[in-house]
Amino acid sequence: MPSYDGPLLEATGLHRSFGAARILRGVDLRLQPGEALAVVGPNGAGKTTLLRLLAGIMRPTQGEVRVLGRVLTSSAPETRRPLGLLSHQSLLYDDLTILENLIFAARLYGLADPAGAALAALEDVDLARRAHDQPRRLSRGLLQRAAIARALLHKPRVLLLDEPFTALDATAAERLRVLLRGRLAQGLAMVLVTHHLTEAWELASRVAVLAGGRWALDEPRAGDLAAFLPRYHELVGA
Amino acid sequence: MPEAIRLAFVIAAKDIRAELRSRTALLSALVFAALVLVIFNFARDPTVLAATDLAPSVLWVTFAFAAMLGLNRAFNVEREHGALDGLLLAPLPRSSLFWGKLLANLAFVGVVEAVTLPLFVLFFNVDLSAALPGIIGTAALATVGFVAAGTVFSAMAVRTRFAELMLPVLLLPFMVPPLVGAVQVTSRLMAGRPLSEMLGWLRLLALYDIVFLTISTLTFAAVVDE
Q1: Please, which residues have CB within 8 angstroms of residue A127's CB and are 6 or more apart in sequence?
Q2: Do A83 and B85 count as a contact with CB atoms less than 8 A apart?
Q3: Which residues of chain B have pLDDT under 50?
Q4: Is the ipTM of this complex over 0.85?
Q5: Which chain A positions have a beta carbon within 8 Å of B80's beta carbon?
């Protein structure tokens, strides 16, 4: 891939409607290497829709998303290669084992050693010993770890996370924070959508509040969470 | 091997592996096919209707509805745990996704047809020895067309609330041309008629395949993208 020194992820004037319902009303976003943007907002603010637009699995009604400077479209598959997504669903198949699921994903990304990459990703989330289990045999927390392994498998340069700490115990959550910090230090850019700011606060370099389909706030993280929360509640009218 | 073709095979291999593991759709389709043949066999009065008059229609109705069970499952497995999002996010052309699903569906329907055909011979007591190569060729020609259409409609139906009900409603009208063509060719093959009498129907089947493979490849992105 040619060298690129612009923003890894850039969204301009994103609008998305479902029928008469306008979910996003002009969202702009720029993420540089090493930046982690925590997106918070009340239910129905459009956080998950924003993430799906940024991942290219939903088309904006208006506006565009650029990944490493290239416009994200369904007809340009290579523009999606730098993206990793942790959705609120695991993206795994129940009839395949966890290892088979990850090998399949590695093959989709054309990785040189699919089995090696899959096992390494499972090691990263401490799930290698359950590699031969099917997803239906895993607890919610272990399934979340498998989904994280799938999202990180191809070493994405832009990571989109929807509630990454859901169902994780304290040890697994800390392990994920360490893993993500390591990737951020290597130049990953990250959008982290969450209701649990407590767990994401230390990871984030910027915090944005989405309310009514627009940014109500987008600023570098400063100070501690306790000082931020009253402002957040004021912004979302809670 | 070009990347788009490699990716299509990766998707087909995944679907086949998953189906071999669960055997949900395959067993359902085979049991369904056997039951349809049994019912038609016992519902027919052999003193009124000769087996060869009814057999081609029965064969193709069985193939078509058994195939529907597999086509229904093709994208339902992608809905579980949001797996379709993983495919749409991956750097693969939407056409590779279509062709991968098509290959897996063809393998599935091919197995169902290969098992159903001997059962059909058994129940209807028809001699297919001379017509067998022709019937296999006709089955291949007709199956490609309706499975191509079924793959697209399966992707379309899976986003609706009643996917299992929606697929037959969408697909059956589009299955009429290949089924009529296949029944006509099969009747003539079983009656030992010359090839010249079937050419028109064979052309229809070939044309249907070309049209639906082209349209499906070109429109699949619009169907799967939200």
Answers
A1: A98, A142, A145, A146, A149
A2: no
A3: none
A4: yes
A5: 93-94
